[in-house]
Design goal:
The protein is mainly α. It is built from 19 helices and no strands. It is 82% helix and 0% strand.
């Protein structure tokens, strides 16, 4: 056997999801799209802060970019359970290219105003939200084995969360050299590469999809009915309800800090360079955390990892809030990236494991709606309050509250205790019996 073949086999043994050619294409697409997204968060945030000198304005931009997932995402999830998920996913980067080029043109011409950035952030966020549920739902069907699910979700986490390292690194370099306008041009280029990789993925229909030609009621009414059915399915399954509540609290209390980072960077003794270093630090931590998860496999260690990541998420916010110099702020950012990405990857894996394919698009879209919706609202709220109260309290208090709630849940909730001890959920029938008071 040749050295290259041995190296390839060793690589796929460690990362078995990469055995699938189409999964590799999805991974590349996610990587390019996420690099673009994180570059945009950095570039838009600094541009608006520079134009307005207001944390509130930064919070509004972050809110505008995130909130469409709470509005568009659920409908897109229902569509993903009916139609070609690959084609739906391709829409997002294709439209996003046009949006980012428009923002680049406004910025490079010197005509850009805060309201331009807010409006285009909302439009771009809506386009991205239309493709997100389809991207999430198609992932399991691209894997060669269901045993590769944690590895596949963790690698997708590396692509999305780890691109905080790639995107902001390029974005920070652009801010320091060519200027923020060219950061938007590069973000558009990354989206074009994301589109190309999705285009190369083979068609795979949803297992429970109803052909469009068989729909007898108006499409909008069918989609609303499908969405209500997906919500009811979550409500009937205590495992899914637990996951949704956990992600809601976690994202709202430990991940809604983007609007405060420009101010924090200024407070600890820096400007755009320190701001970029904090965002890159989050990416470094995210890469480390998700690579670690990707080699765990389906073992009880997942439960312990969830516990460590949950507590670490809250403590990272405390470290950021107490930081008085750039080194401490970046250290807190690295811990935040590692713990928060690991927690989200584990919850997403559990969700994928217990959700049947015919509900996958809707369940994942509702899950994302809850997570990102709370992040968007609290980013806006924290940014607004921070102009008067300062950022330190708004980092420390939510972090401490999250740790207290997570520890209390681990003690009081049988389903969470089981997950933390065993690394997986009980079968649905067992969970339903326990929830109804049975033994």
């Amino acid at each position: 056997m040749s050295v290259s073949t041995e190296s390839t086999n060793a690589w796929t043994r460690r990362f078995p999801a990469f055995e699938s050619v189409d999964y590799r294409r999805l991974f590349l697409s996610n990587s390019f799209a996420a690099a673009s997204a994180w570059m945009l968060i950095l570039a838009r945030g600094w541009l608006v802060f520079d134009l307005s000198d207001s944390t509130t304005a930064v919070g509004i931009v972050v809110f505008a970019g995130m909130i469409p997932l709470a509005i568009v995402g659920p409908i897109a999830g229902a569509l993903a359970d009916r139609f070609d998920r690959r084609r739906l996913a391709m829409f997002a980067p294709a439209f996003g290219v046009a949006v980012q080029l428009a923002l680049a043109a406004l910025t490079l011409s010197g005509a850009v105003e805060v309201w331009h950035v807010i409006t285009l952030a909302a439009i771009g966020g809506a386009a991205a939200s239309a493709g997100t549920p389809a991207l999430d739902a198609i992932l399991p069907s691209l894997l060669r084995s269901r045993d590769h699910l944690l590895n596949g979700v963790a690698l997708a986490g590396i692509a999305r969360h780890g691109s905080r390292l790639i995107g902001p690194s390029f974005g920070a370099a652009m801010l320091a050299t060519a200027g923020v306008g060219y950061a938007f041009v590069l973000a558009a280029g990354f989206l074009a590469l994301s589109f190309w990789q999705l285009y190369r993925i083979e068609f795979r229909p949803s297992e429970g999809a109803t052909p469009a030609t068989a729909i007898r009621t108006p499409l909008w009414r069918s989609l609303l009915s499908d969405l209500a059915d997906g919500g009811a399915y979550i409500a009937r399954d205590p495992r899914l309800m637990l996951i949704v509540v956990l992600v809601m609290l976690h994202c709202g209390l430990t991940m809604a800090f983007d609007s405060m980072m420009p101010t924090l960077a200024t407070m600890v003794g820096g400007a755009s360079n320190v701001y970029g270093a904090i965002i890159v630090g989050i990416g470094i931590g995210a890469v480390a955390g998700t690579i670690w998860l990707s080699v765990l496999g389906n073992t009880p260690v997942k439960g312990g990892a969830l516990a460590v990541a949950g507590v670490g998420s809250g403590m990272s916010m405390v470290i950021l809030g107490l930081a008085t110099n750039p080194a401490t702020a970046v250290a807190g950012a690295i811990l935040a990236g590692a713990s928060q990405s690991a927690f989200v990857v584990l919850l997403t894996t559990f969700l994928q494991e217990v959700t049947p394919d015919e509900y996958r698009g809707r369940v994942l879209s509702i899950y994302s709606m809850v997570a990102v919706g709370h992040m968007a609202v609290l980013n806006f709220g924290f940014g607004w309050i921070a102009d008067g109260a300062g950022v330190r309290l708004l980092l420390i208090a939510p972090g401490v509250l999250w740790v207290a709630l997570f520890v209390a849940g681990a003690v009081m909730l049988p389903e969470l205790r089981h997950v933390l001890r065993r690394g997986d959920f009980r079968p649905r029938a067992v969970a339903l019996e326990a929830a109804s008071g049975g033994r």
